[in-house]
Amino acid sequence: MNVILFGPPGVGKGTQGVRLSEKLGIIQLAMGDLLRAAVKEGSDLGVKAKAFMDAGKLVPDDVVVGMIEERITAADAKAGFLLDGFPRNVPQAEALAAMLDKHGLKIERVIFMDAPESMLLERLSGRLICRACGFGFHRHYSPPREEGCCDRCSGELYQRDDDREEVIAQRLGVYQEQTQPLLDYYSSADGFFKIDAAGEVADVYKALEKAVQG
Ligand code: AP5
Q1: I need a surface site. Which of 19, 143, 210, 211 has the fewest CB within 10 A?
Q2: Which pLDDT tens digit goes with each residue over 63-116?
Q3: Domains defined along the chain, listed by start
C-alpha cells in the first residue's frame, strides 16, 4: 500500500507515520528527515536546503521532487511507502502524479490530519528529537524517562532549529498559503480521508488505522 499523510507542521505526521508504516510493513519517507540527513552530510543539496529550512520556507520543488522519485523507485519501497511531508504544494502533487504514472505506481490512501493552531504551537515548541535515532518526544505529552536522553537508544535529545517561535510562525504561514490548497486538490480523490488529530496519540492512531482499512 502507498499512503500520503499530510497536514500542518506539528500535527503528528512523523509520530503517527512511524507507527503506521511499521504496522503496514512499508517504508516511511519523511521529506523533512531526508532533507535533514542531507544537511548533516554537508552535501551541496544539504547546504542549499538548510537556508530554506532555517527560515521556515519550502525548499525548491526541483530539489525535493528529484529526491522523492529516487526513493519511491528504490528496492526498499517495493512493498509500499508512506509519504510524510511530500507533496507540500500543488506543483509537487502534480509532479508526484506524473512520476507515479511513469513508474506504474498508485496511491491508495491520502490522509489529511488536522488540529487547532494553538495545539500545533504547543506541540512544536515542546518537541524533542533524538540525535542518534530520530525518535520524537514531547516535554509534556511524551517526556523521556530520563531528561535529555532517548528511551530507545540513550541518544542525546535536542530541539530542532526550526522549532523556535519565530520560525514556527513562518512555517504555519507557509502551510496556509501553499499546503492547504492541497485539500481541494485531493479531497475528491479515491481513498481520501480527513482525520481529527487533536486527540491523544493512541486515539489518532486508531482513526488512522480505520482510514487505512477503508
Ligand atoms: P518537516 O520536518 O516535514 O516538518 P513539518 O511538516 O513542519 O512537520 P513536523 O515534523 O514539524 O511535524 P509533524 O507533523 O511530523 O509532527 P510530530 O509528529 O513531530 O519539514 C521541515 C522543513 O523541511 C520544512 O519547513 C521545509 O523547509 C522542508 N521541507 C520538508 N518537506 C518539504 C517539501 N515537500 N517541499 C519543500 N520543502 C520541504 O509531532 C510534533 C510534536 O507533537 C512531537 O513532540 C510529538 O511528540 C507531539 N505529538 C504528536 N502527536 C501528538 C498528540 N496526538 N498529542 C500530543 N502530542 C503529540
Answers
A1: 210
A2: 999 999 999 999 999 999 999 999 999 999 999 999 999 999 999 999 999 999
A3: 3-115+178-213 (3.40.50.300)
Report CA dihedral (61, 63, 66, 67) to the nearest 10 degrees: -120
- Cβ pair 14, 136 in contact under 8 A: yes
Is residue 85 within 6 Å of ligand 1 at its C-beta?
yes
Interval 150-168: pLDDT, tens = 999 999 999 999 999 999 9
Query: Annotated catalytic sites, by residue?
Result: 13, 88, 127, 160, 171
- Would the CB of 95 count as within 6 Å of ligand 1? no
Does residue 64 line the site of ligand 1, with CB under 6 A? yes
